[in-house]
Amino acid sequence: MAGDTTYTVEPPAAVHIHTVIFLHGRDSSSKEFADEFFESEASQPTDQPRTLRDLFPSVRWVFPSAPILQSKRFGTDMSQWFDMWSVENPAERPELQRPGLERSVEQILSIIKEQELLVPRERIFLGGISQGFATAIATFFTDTREGFAGLIGLCSWMPVTFRNADYQSFGTSENPQNSPDNAQQRPPAVVESNRKTPIFLGHSADDDVVPIANGRELRDIVQSRRFQVEWREYEDGGHWINEPQGIDDIAHFMNSLMVNKRPESLED
Questions:
Q1: Any idea what the Cα angle at residue 29 is, between residues 23 and 34, rounded to 5°?
Q2: Measuring CA to CA, which residue among 167, 47, 25, 41 is closest to residue 102?
Q3: Which DSSP string corresponds to 68-81?
Q4: C-alpha distances in angstroms, 221 versus 103, 163, 215?
Q5: What band does 2 get if pLDDT is binned at 50, 70 and 90?
Q6: In whole angstroms, what is the distance from residue 135 CA to residue 141 CA?
Q7: What is the pLDDT, as a whole number, of residue 12?
Q8: Which of 18, 42, 65, 217 is the residue whose CA sits 20 to 30 A from 200?
Q9: Which residues, other chains included, contact 84 with Cβ-Cβ below 8 Å and sequence gap of 6+?
Q10: Which residue has the higher pLDDT, 135 or 145?
Q11: pLDDT higher than 90, residue 267
Q12: Phi, psi (degrees; rounded to nearest 5) at 182
């Protein structure tokens, strides 16, 4: 069952400095996505392998798997972080989305806590593609205690529950800490450490699965909440990563945030 596994790619270097937790899209799996993800290459260096794994030898890559849930629309079981009626119109049939999204957010929060045993959250990137990033950003807005090194979102949208600023009731059915009775104990919707988390969003104009208008709306919502957003729009790439420019942009984004963040034990 897809949700029972997390596929991890250990850093080839001797030292583990950063971690990337990356969520696959709907009807995929952790290893299937990771294998395809690491086939995409940057433009440089031309004389050697240049996938993101090659470019970041001190990064541990963690690929969670979505659970198998019944699709109400298609009448079959499939790998998905939450059920939904339409990716073209994510606001349609919102009642289908919340139960699965709450459980998936809890799953990702648990994985984040596990990874924090190895590196602090300030050296963890959280990302995803399509429904994977919709789940990742829901996780980001659910747990506001501290920020990440950065968020990386591809071909995605803002979950309907999080489109409005008032989403504090999210998770109450699964997490008593988010219940109205504990409102005074909960952190504010966005704390400053969270707001300092940079966000990279990439989307191709020819994406025939998730319209680029959904990605633009995601960008606008996040920017309206005063987050630093790096938006990249590509002419082609479909429902995937533009290559090589998209890989170049992700690599530049990650590199810019890794500067001066080596562990003290590795400093001279």
A1: 65
A2: 167
A3: EEEETTTTEEEE-S
A4: 24, 7, 10
A5: very low
A6: 10
A7: 84
A8: 65
A9: 90, 92, 93, 96, 97, 131
A10: 135
A11: no
A12: -105, 20
Q: Exposed, middle or buried by CB within 10 Å (0-12, 13-18, 19+), for 8?
A: middle
Helix H or strand E encompassing 14:
none
pLDDT for the residue numbered 137: 97
Residues 187-208, mean pLDDT to the nearest whole number: 82
239: its two tokens:
């429902």
Annotate 202-256 with DSSP letters as a single string: EEETT-SSS-HHHHHHHHHHHHHTT--EEEEEESS--SS--TTHHHHHHHHHHHH
Confidence at residue 266, expressed as pLDDT on a 0 to 100 scale: 42
Count of C-beta atoms within a 10 Å radius of residue 105: 25
**209-225 as b/e: b if 16+ CB within 10 A:** ebbeebbeebbebbeee
d(C-alpha 119, C-alpha 263), whole Å: 9
- 189 has pLDDT over 80: no
User: What mean pLDDT comes out for the span 194-212?
Assistant: 95
Alpha-carbon distance of 225 to 247, in angstroms, equals 27
Mean pLDDT, the chain, integer? 88
Cis peptide upstream of residue 180 (ω within 30 degrees of 0): no
Reported as half-sphere exposure (CB side, CA atoms, 13 A), residue 262 has a value of 8
Q: Which amino acid is at 245?
A: Q
